[in-house]
Here is the input.
Amino acid sequence: MRSVMCGRYSLVCIDDLGNRFRVFNPMMGARSRFNIAPGNEMPVIVGGDARELVLMQWGLVPRFTCDLVSARHPINARAETIRENPVFRHLVRDRRCLVPASGFYEWKNEGKRKVPFYFHLPESPLFAFAGLYDTWKTPDGSSLATYTIITCRPNPLIAGIHDRMPVILRKSDEKHWISQESLTAEIMESMLSPFPAEQMAACPVSPLVNSPGTDDERLVQPLNSSAGKQTLLEE
Here is the structure.
């Protein structure tokens, strides 16, 4: 089993966040991101009915962390164990969040090569991963807000490429996920299930995505498109 799960994603046209997620501080003018990597600071939605968009760092720093340097900063949390895992179980009660996204990347082993694939929802240019967040107090008294993305078993589209996938929430579940209400184990199991494969699409993309410093629209162009082929020639 591979340990690396959802490690890169995109957020395109984030000027639409306000309308899509009913957020009243949508940070108009922020640029699209095509290659979001752990450690990046990205918008996350919290707050139940009074929704708020907050910038947080990807890679969870739990509030009880003593040493920031040596501590693990999990970018993913397994849906099957978050209610028992001591790092996540207290966050499940009152620190649930939406992580806006447009797509995500996974890598398929082909011999000695790892071919990146881009997954997205053709009918939903913006959607939300299920996330958890926490706030750590720094020694000087300031705060560091961080988040992690929940993963689940893969749907058939992803199963041939990776053994995990990020939890993409159904639009009807987003309100309940960030509400202040307690969620039963049965409701959570239903919410944190694989997104239907028939509503998703996948395509191989340029290995340029391997570099976290590369961040432009070439990364989401299918390799069989003219733009994707041009990208390969430029490498």
Observations:
- Residues 226-235 have pLDDT under 50 and may be disordered.
- The chain has one domain: 9-234.
